[in-house]
Design goal:
Elements lengths: L1 E5 L2 E6 L18 E9 L13 E5 L11 E4 L6 E3 L11 E3 L11
Antiparallel strand pairs: 1-2, 1-3, 3-4, 5-6, 5-7
Length: about 110
Amino acid sequence: MVSIYNDTKLVGSVEVTATDGSWSFTTDELDDGVASLTTKVTDKAGNVSEPTPPIVLHIDATAPAVPQAITGTDDVAWYQGAINHNGLTNDAQPTLSGVVEGNASVTI
């Protein structure tokens, strides 16, 4: 049997049924923060192995805050400046800008 731990807390276990010793386990939802997962193996005689080296995961399942207002700027003459909502522009490459959570990716 393989027992899976997050730090010292048992998060689950799974019986090894494959003849090659392979196993698979899906954890319950982990809290945001750092998870340090290790495993120990218990054989049929009840002997328990030392823990594996940890796999450290940085969990961030919280969606970023809604971006602040996006703005468009026209920098091609005859009109240059902010593009109003539903406004017209002659700039085929307007500059878009806004503010989002630090280190986030913006998809347009």
